[in-house]
Amino acid sequence: MKLVVQRVKNAKVEVEKKVVGQIEKGFLVLLGVTHNDTKQEADYLVKKLCNLRVFEDENEKMNLALKDVGGELLIVSQFTLYADCTQGNRPAFINAAKPEVAEPLYEYFCKECEKNNIHVEKGIFGADMKVSLLNDGPVTIILEK
User: Fold this and answer.
1) With a threshold of 0.90, does the pTM exceed it?
2) pLDDT (tens digit, 9 = 90+) per residue, 32-57?
3) Which DSSP string corresponds to 11-36?
4) Catalytic residue check, 86
């Protein structure tokens, strides 16, 4: 499982010109699932994400987590995180889990984040989504398990 985590001032995702998920201060998370991923990997990354200390404290040091700043999560599934570009110029997606494996893990991941008392918004799994954000920093972190 792979996460691209972007600290944002705000972010939203639209499907067919309708906003389906929107947050203010927090993280936009792009989430990719590969074949071997299980709830164990999801649990590890939920804990890591929810406790990631990349918000500034009173001394302007990255020392605060989402909960400390009242941050929110916008979690968007993105199978292209497992693109393989080693052969030619057209990416292969054979390392991405099939939807019947990836979608339940995506939903599980979102629910587990909510259990940490963090407001979670989502995209729509498998939809053609338009994601917009105001990156804060910028701070972009890749987490993988």
Assistant:
1) yes
2) 999 999 999 999 999 999 999 999 99
3) EEEEETTEEEEEESSEEEEEEE-BTT
4) no
